[in-house]
């Protein structure tokens, strides 16, 4: 979490008093806006193991996991490996900062309604002078373990589950801002809730719930109702846009979050309620070299990851109703690839801004093949076609150039629809007749309305002479 130097001294003085005053009313159970789901027990042992690994990464990389440095890259690789192994589709999103190039990591669990996205996140970077194990190893480890537990549970999510691990939060919330700026308006509108997790294992802990986006925000009330049901006193806190929920909130997406305290001093009333030491910071090692694995309260961590798991199970199953996009709207995310590989799955590498082949529009495209060697590449994206649609159409623009000659199809590109265990090939293109100009292709997907399917492009190239299949400006539109 960034420091508070931009906050006025008066605001900092009043914050604990305001929170304490509101808490008296907050201890009364609020009627949850969503039916309560079974609350999972997220493993604190597994979460602590993630934190031990982040500590080892920091120790091996100059004592920190700072944006743009090797410790942060190693942190991204560790989290990505865990999510990949659990079946998530992961995307690394690179962007530039004053500290150099850094990354966000976005992961989605296959299945669920892509028009209703439930998102959890936290920042993965530390400050430059410490390993950042509470801030924010605790939050990112909690998000990771909750996501892994959901994938292992066998639950079938009604909504699309997406998790984000943000870079450069300590430089001014840059990662989450970059991510939101990379989304089209249509994709932002699909995010139904964003839950932020930033510092949840402070050694002198409190139990705070964000209250800076209260209007019509059932997620805030679900958090407080959960804590009340477990007999855990809580307080509202206005974190004043100091964490990654701010980019989502500014667009109007409902946000909520939990927090165990940073540099503010615990009051005597708070110490009486929660235990710990009054007159001492909730985290005396905040933004310091001592923010290591020894700077954790595992009871607070255990309680908070269970709260997070409760919210994940609850919102993954929440009924947002049937959403019918406006006629002509594009159901595919990042359809022109201008955000890189975001929202697309498949082989690493085809989605590129390499100038060796031109994009139809913009700078990015999907360049499949062109290797001149035996290879197979694919890209895919899942899409939910509303049951209320009267028609659905897949279109994309394709450019084919080749060094092959003759009438034999040596290299091919298949346009496919994957519906559960059934794969249907809509068309096959090859080196035969290639003319290196873009042409639009169109297919009727109306038969798949009411279903979530995957649109897939699969390239196969033989051992000699290249054929490049370049795809741009994709769309699935409904009417």
Give a brief outline of the structure:
The chain has 479 residues and is an alpha+beta fold.
Explained architecture:
The chain folds into two domains: 9-316, 3-Layer(aba) Sandwich (Aminopeptidase); 345-478, Galactose-binding domain-like (Jelly Rolls). The relative contact order is 0.13. The protein has helices at 9-26, 44-60, 70-85, 133-153, 174-182, 185-189, 218-229, 245-251, 268-274, 298-316; strands at 89-97, 100-108, 113-123, 159-166, 191-197, 208-210, 235-237, 255-259, 345-346, 351-352, 365-369, 375-385, 392-402, 412-419, 422-430, 439-444, 451-461, 467-478. The two termini are 44 Å apart. Helices cover 27% and strands 28% of the residues. The strands form three sheets. The protein has an eight-stranded mixed β-sheet, sandwiched between helices. It has a five-stranded antiparallel β-sheet with strand order 9-12-17-14-15, with no helix packed on it. The model is unreliable at 5-37 (pLDDT under 50). With 479 residues, the protein is of the alpha+beta class. It comes from Pedococcus aerophilus. This is M28 family peptidase. Belongs to the peptidase M28 family. M28A subfamily. It holds the Pfam family Peptidase_M28. Residues 1-38 form the signal peptide.
């Amino acid at each position: 979490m960034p420091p508070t130097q931009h906050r006025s001294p008066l605001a900092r003085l009043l914050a604990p008093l305001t929170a304490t005053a509101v808490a008296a009313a907050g201890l009364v159970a609020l009627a949850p806006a969503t039916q309560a789901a079974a609350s999972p027990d997220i493993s604190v042992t597994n979460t602590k193991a993630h934190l031990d690994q982040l500590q080892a990464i920091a120790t091996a990389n100059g004592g920190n996991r700072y944006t743009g440095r090797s410790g942060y890259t190693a942190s991204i690789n560790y989290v990505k490996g865990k999510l990949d192994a659990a079946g998530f589709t992961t995307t690394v999103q690179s962007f530039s900062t004053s500290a150099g190039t850094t990354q966000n990591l976005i992961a989605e669990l296959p299945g669920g309604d892509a028009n209703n996205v439930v998102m959890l996140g936290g920042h993965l970077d530390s400050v430059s002078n410490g390993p950042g194990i509470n801030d924010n190893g605790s939050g990112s480890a909690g998000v990771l373990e909750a996501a892994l537990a959901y994938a292992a549970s066998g639950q079938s999510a009604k909504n699309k589950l997406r998790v984000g691990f943000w870079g450069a939060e300590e430089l001014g919330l840059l990662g989450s801002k970059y991510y939101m700026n990379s989304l089209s308006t249509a994709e932002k509108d699909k995010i139904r809730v964003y839950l932020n997790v930033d510092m949840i294992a402070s050694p002198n802990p409190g139990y705070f719930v964000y209250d800076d986006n209260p209007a019509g925000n059932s997620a805030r009330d679900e958090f407080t109702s959960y804590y009340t049901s477990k007999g855990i006193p809580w307080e509202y806190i206005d974190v004043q846009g100091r964490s990654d929920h701010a980019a989502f909130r500014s667009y109007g997406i409902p946000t909520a979050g939990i927090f165990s305290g940073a540099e503010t001093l615990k009051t005597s009333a708070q110490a009486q309620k929660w235990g710990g030491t009054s007159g001492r910071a909730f985290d005396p090692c905040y933004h310091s070299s001592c923010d290591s694995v020894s700077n954790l309260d595992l009871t607070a961590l255990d309680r908070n990851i269970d709260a997070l798991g409760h919210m994940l199970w609850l919102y993954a199953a929440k009924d947002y109703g049937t959403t019918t996009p406006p006629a002509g709207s594009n159901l595919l995310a990042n359809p022109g690839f201008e955000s890189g590989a975001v929202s697309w799955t498949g082989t690493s590498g085809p989605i590129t801004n390499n100038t060796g082949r031109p994009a139809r529009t913009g700078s990015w495209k999907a360049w499949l093949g062109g290797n001149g060697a035996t290879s197979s590449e694919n890209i895919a994206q899942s899409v939910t076609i509303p049951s209320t649609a009267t028609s659905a159409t897949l279109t994309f623009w394709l450019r084919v150039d080749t060094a092959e000659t003759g009438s034999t199809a040596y290299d091919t590109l298949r346009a496919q629809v994957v519906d559960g265990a059934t794969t249907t090939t809509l068309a096959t293109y090859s080196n035969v007749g290639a003319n290196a100009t873009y042409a639009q292709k169109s297919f009727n997907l109306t038969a798949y309305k009411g279903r979530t399917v995957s649109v897939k492009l699969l390239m196969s190239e033989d051992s000699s002479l290249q054929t490049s299949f370049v795809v741009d400006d994709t769309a699935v539109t409904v009417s």
